[in-house]
Design brief:
Helix content: 25-40%
Radius of gyration: 22 Å
Number of helices: 11
Mean pLDDT: 93
CATH class of the largest domain: Alpha Beta
Number of domains: 2
CATH architecture of the largest domain: Alpha-Beta Barrel
CATH topology of the largest domain: TIM Barrel
Shape: globular
Oligomer: single chain
Largest sheet: 6 strands, parallel
Number of strands: 18
Length: about 375
């Protein structure tokens, strides 16, 4: 069997938020508790980032070790995940974007301290909560770059910003100082009618900056149409026609040069490291690509700054040490099943344990997991 230590990727652990476009990322806290309980029962231990890198450097792997990672720095990592990890003597690693850190101070109540209906559930960690998790040893903090957003990549208009869309990152870019609050009751959504140009993850390529007159004209046009404009069947056609008119007289947009793009990448990677180290009083040595988006050139920059860097799912088989002496960390997603109706379930601990055994080359575990998966799918189908 393989001696590689599996690295599992989680995001939020708590109570799914039905109106959140990425609610599928939330593992119910009861399921997470069951998963950790089963891992403990099966003899697994968790590794810190330093331990994970060290065992791959030396080739000396602890038996049944696993590296648990959590992306983005959600508040529920403190409210639910941290106390569950503490309960089983485990630790995890949270990849944090300083842009999203909540400016509040003090420790918000956790689920082991208050009834769930009295808790603040949705949002992002503040510095005090991160420091306390580091002090307790149940979570450590590493870098996820600064912005974790999307940027325009070409002059092609692919849509228009409208109520109910999933272009929440356009609101982040309009008001970056309010990004931490986008899951809250006072979240900002607006500038309806703005053009949505072809776009990509922030660190994966050069940014295209269009002539702002097109955006301004389209926002004004949408506002002039009145409150029910986006209920009309032809609202996209109306905005498309206005966009053609505005673009006919607009100036040319501008694409970042390759040098400017790489300078921006270097700033994001160095600044996030600097801010995290300043606020937490520790060395930040591991980096996770926000959204898994990067280029070969960006990857080389990250490898020169960090001892460990994640790789995207398409490069999962390319983990290992690189020429810079940085370890490429291949991760596997928290085990879940998506169904044709768009629903998702997290099967829980035994399923995850079987997957970990399969991941390390256990053919029997693979057969059992496939039977288990088929049974779950059949149960879902029969319940329709």
């Amino acid at each position: 069997m393989s001696r590689e230590v599996p690295c599992i990727m989680y995001h939020t652990v708590g109570i799914p938020k039905p109106d959140w476009v990425w609610s599928f990322l939330t593992m119910p806290f009861e399921t997470f508790d069951h998963e950790m309980r089963v891992l403990k029962k099966c003899g697994y231990r968790t590794l810190s980032s330093a331990e994970f890198l060290e065992c791959h450097r030396t080739g000396e792997f602890p038996d049944k070790a696993v590296y648990l990672t959590f992306d983005d720095g959600y508040l529920d990592n403190w409210v639910f995940a941290a106390p569950i990890l503490e309960k089983y003597g485990f630790c995890g690693t949270i990849f944090v974007n300083p842009d999203f850190v909540d400016p509040s101070m003090g420790l918000r109540p956790r689920y082991d301290e208050r009834p769930v209906d009295e808790l603040e559930l949705y949002g992002f960690l503040n510095w005090d909560e991160m420091r306390e998790m580091e002090r307790r040893g149940c979570m450590e903090i590493q870098s996820h770059a600064m912005t974790h957003t999307w940027y325009f990549s070409s002059p092609e208009i692919v849509d228009f910003h409208h109520p109910g869309d999933d272009y929440v990152w356009m609101d982040w870019n309009d008001r970056p100082e309010k990004k931490y609050g986008y899951l809250g009751a006072d979240a900002y959504r607006g500038n309806w009618g703005a053009p949505v140009y072809a776009h990509r993850k922030s660190l994966s390529g050069p940014v295209y900056t269009p002539d702002p007159s097109v955006r301004e004209g389209l926002i004004a046009f949408a506002a002039e149409q009145g409150e029910g404009f986006f209920d009309r069947a032809d609202w996209r056609e109306a905005l498309g026609g206005k966009a053609d008119e505005l673009q006919a007289t607009a100036g040319e947009g501008r694409l970042e040069t390759d040098a400017e793009y790489l300078e921006r990448v270097r700033w994001e990677l160095t600044e996030s490291k600097r801010v995290l180290e300043r606020e937490l009083g520790k060395s930040v040595d591991v980096f996770c690509w926000p959204g898994g988006g990067y280029s070969d050139e960006a990857e080389a920059i990250a490898a020169s700054l960090y001892k460990g860097v994640t790789v995207g799912s398409a490069k999962r088989d390319q983990g290992g040490w690189d020429e810079h002496g940085s370890f490429k960390i291949a991760r596997i997603g928290a085990q879940s099943l998506f169904f044709e109706d768009g629903s998702i379930i997290y099967p829980g601990g035994w399923y995850t344990c079987l997957f970990l055994r399969e991941y390390q080359g256990d053919g029997v575990a693979r057969f059992i997991r496939q039977v288990y998966k088929a049974a779950l799918l059949l149960k879902k189908k029969m319940a329709r």
